[in-house]
Amino acid sequence: GAVVSQHPSWVICKSGTSVKIECRSLDFQATTMFWYRQFPKQSLMLMATSNEGSKATYEQGVEKDKFLINHASLTLSTLTVTSAHPEDSSFYICSAKGQRGLLNEQFFGPGTRLTVL
Amino acid sequence: KQEVTQIPAALSVPEGENLVLNCSFTDSAIYNLQWFRQDPGKGLTSLLLIQSSQREQTSGRLNASLDKSSGRSTLYIAASQPGDSATYLCAVSGGNTGKLIFGQGTTLQVKP
Fold first, then answer.
1. Which tens digit of pLDDT belongs to each residue from A33-42?
2. DSSP assignment, residue A42?
3. List of chain A residues whose C-beta atoms are within 8 Å of the C-beta of residue B93
4. Chain A residues contacting B via beta carbons under 8 Å
5. Cα distance from B32 to chain A (closest Cα, Å)?
6. Contacts of residue A108 in chain B, CB cutoff 8 Å?
7. Nearest alpha-carbon partner for B75 in B112, B40, B42, B103
């Protein structure tokens, strides 16, 4: 299957700092990338959808000024958690779809574990 | 609003047993349905994707079925092995945006 990478795989930061997470599609062009959040023992919740070259579409209840998403190229999307607080600690997973696999098939990254102290 | 439910939440079986995981969704107007596996602290591994026009997909010991009209899907695992222990998630896509709505998952433990 297609390969999607995330960096970093884990990060610990102090409350009030900003953290940037990268999502890359390594062997295909991703026209759309999705960002999910997963709290312990819960399922994945979609945060936002980003299309290359346009503004991200955020799900209800997700603060767009807190979770900044940039999808500047067909292989890279970034999620920046601004002024992080302990309640933002979670597992963040991205996925990508595009010119690979079945129509609408999403390929998932390995996730980034964020811990805010 | 689409809601996806998975039953049971947890399941423990002895090695070698055949088992069925259930997934139901409230809006039958789906584009496709996917089953994923997630190991603790890891990302998702796609197991099977069923398009809305299909009724089942098979991969090795796994077989997934889809009944759109009743809003149900099942994942059948044959001859379970300890290595199958993981959380299994089903997710439905409601349209050409590709947005996936996930169920809560079934955590499977296969005992040697």
1. 999 999 988 8
2. S
3. 104
4. 1, 6, 32, 34, 42-46, 49, 91, 93, 95, 97, 102, 104-111, 113
5. 8
6. 36, 43-46
7. B103
Beta carbons of A20 and A79 less than 8 angstroms apart: yes
Average pLDDT score over chain B: 93
**pLDDT of the residue at B41:** 86
> Tens digits of per-residue pLDDT, B8-48?
999 999 999 999 999 999 998 898 999 999 998 888 999 99
What is the distance between the alpha carbons of residues B62 and A114, in angstroms, rounded to a whole number?
Answer: 33
Q: Which of B34, B42, B101 comes nearest A110 by C-beta?
A: B42
Side-chain-side CA neighbours of residue B46 (13 Å): 22
Residue A80's SS3 state is strand
Instruction: State how far the Cα of A45 lies from the Cα of A53, in Å rounded to an integer.
Output: 24
